[in-house]
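Inverse folding, one chain.
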């Protein structure tokens, strides 16, 4: 059944859908925060209503859907794979208490996908929660959604508007979402993108910089959600220096291995502050004399050691009595050169 477009937008941006609205900087919430949150939501509604007036949202229809026939739009910042019963528990309990989903998600119709009829533009947690409830004692619970006609750029802005009010959408998720949208929707023009999203150009530039952090660095953190804007920007800047980058990436690999070990042992993982400190300190630590690197043969005895590496070249020592064959020593030499490359001390043409 068709609904008034103003009703649709008010429901979409209702504060009770998924929690309070923090600022983009994730600043601590104080006593005046609820008032600011309401003001932010009202501004969002006005912005959304303006899109209706401009003709971007041409039609809105509310339906009760099977969530299995609804996919999640790939252009949304929220990572569906990282949602869980724990992260959606409050919303799940609310849906149960209220006898169903009260705030509709926003979807649009898809073509050419035999497995799905719609895709979620805004309301990913609602979709996950209803799907979970249907698999856990509530098999007939419908997914309440309002169907809108939106092009990709309008869908991105609508999803972004909602994600700004969600504390569980991480800075890294939003940063990577912005980076993808910059090329897809805005022709790589940051100024145009900032104007369309009504964001500060400086703030958007920092978010796009954070999006360049490589997966090796992200793996050093206990969770990608722990990568925040300010420290993430500092790390991304440090990686612009090739010498610093080699040291940071080497330390990131050490940290990632340590975090994996700690998970296996059920030991507390390194927190974001400690990870950032160690990564940023890595270039300073590794700028001193390098510790000898030794490759051991199959018998466990030293076979090759890097004695020095500088602009003049690399000096290695082949140990007598190692028991290593010529092929093994050749493999050791390749491993030594790869190690030096990781350290930023590799041979230069």
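Residues assigned per position:
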């Amino acid at each position: 059944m068709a609904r008034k477009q103003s009703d649709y937008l008010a429901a979409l941006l209702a504060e009770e859908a998924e929690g309070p609205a923090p600022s983009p900087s994730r600043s601590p919430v104080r006593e005046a925060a609820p008032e600011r949150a309401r003001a932010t939501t009202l501004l969002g509604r006005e912005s959304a209503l303006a899109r209706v007036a401009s003709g971007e949202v041409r039609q809105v229809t509310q339906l009760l859907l099977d969530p299995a026939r609804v996919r999640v739009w790939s252009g949304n910042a929220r990572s569906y794979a990282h949602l869980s019963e724990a992260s959606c528990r409050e919303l799940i309990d609310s849906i149960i208490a209220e006898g169903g989903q009260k705030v509709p998600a926003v979807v649009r119709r898809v073509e050419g996908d035999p497995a799905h009829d719609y895709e979620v533009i805004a309301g990913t947690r609602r979709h996950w929660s209803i799907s979970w409830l249907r698999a856990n004692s509530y098999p007939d619970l419908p997914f309440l959604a309002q169907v809108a006609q939106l092009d990709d750029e309008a869908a991105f802005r609508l999803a972004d508007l909602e994600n700004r009010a969600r504390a569980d959408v991480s800075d890294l998720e939003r940063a990577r979402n912005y980076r993808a949208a910059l090329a897809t929707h805005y022709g790589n023009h940051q100024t145009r993108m900032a104007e369309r999203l009504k964001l500060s150009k400086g703030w958007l530039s920092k978010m796009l910089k954070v999006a360049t952090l490589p997966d090796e660095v992200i793996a050093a953190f206990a969770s990608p959600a722990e990568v925040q804007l300010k420290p993430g920007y500092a790390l991304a800047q440090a990686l612009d220096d090739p010498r610093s980058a080699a040291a940071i990436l080497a330390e990131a690999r050490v940290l990632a291995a340590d975090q994996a070990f700690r998970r296996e042992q059920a030991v507390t993982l390194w927190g974001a502050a400690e990870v950032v400190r160690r990564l940023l300190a890595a270039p300073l630590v590794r700028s001193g004399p390098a510790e000898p690197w030794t490759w051991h043969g199959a018998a466990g005895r030293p076979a090759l050691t890097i004695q020095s590496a500088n602009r003049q070249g690399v000096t290695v020592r082949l140990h007598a009595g190692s028991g290593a064959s010529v092929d093994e020593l050749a493999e050791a030499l390749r491993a030594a050169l790869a190690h030096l490359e990781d350290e930023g001390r590799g041979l230069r043409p």
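The chain has a mean pLDDT of 81. The longest strand covers residues 302-310.
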